[in-house]
Amino acid sequence: MNYSGRSSKLLDDAISQFSSLPGIGKKTATRFALYLLRKSESDVENFVRAISKMKQETQFCKICNNISDSDVCAICSDNSRDKSLVCVVEGIHDVMAIESTSQYNGLYHVLGGIISPMDGIGPGELNIANLIERINTGNVSEIILALPTTMEGDTTNFYLNRKIANTNVSVSILARGVAIGDELQYTDEITLGQSILNRKPFAV
After folding, report:
1. Using H for helix, E for strand and C for coil, what is the string for 46-103?
2. Is the pTM of this model over 0.70?
């Protein structure tokens, strides 16, 4: 029996799994599947084991909500980082984007989203309470708001600024080298790095 123009249902099933990944079309999925088919059994087992181990054992840092191999991520446990500086981001991909610039040496706080009433996402659905807890410890001197330059991102910035307003913590925002409507993960490293270095006080 022919399955979607191919002679193997096993291959077809593998292609379907690859094509379910974001940004992966049928042609790329087919190339991935055929590549693995040519690899040795041990290579494929190592590939599958790495994915399975990541899914089963990856944790979220109890301090910043970033992905971690243990209770506290490598960034939060790094004593060479400036622990008085906390960069607030929407998601884990933003941490990766900022880290790739090599221009930031503070800590992070991953909100897990941004306020979006249209999508039913309010402050209660985000990791805001533990951000305020971190600020209340007195160890944080500056919060950098590094959220998307969208209406939802600006709404979240405004909300967070109001929550922090009565503390002694200064609030800054990325310089607008990041274009309006852009997401950090799609911004080039040089622009993103300069936006962090040239950050400015948050103004309502």
Report:
1. HHHHHHHHHHHHCEECCCCCCEECCCCCCCCCCCCCEEEEEEEECCHHHHHHHHCCCC
2. yes
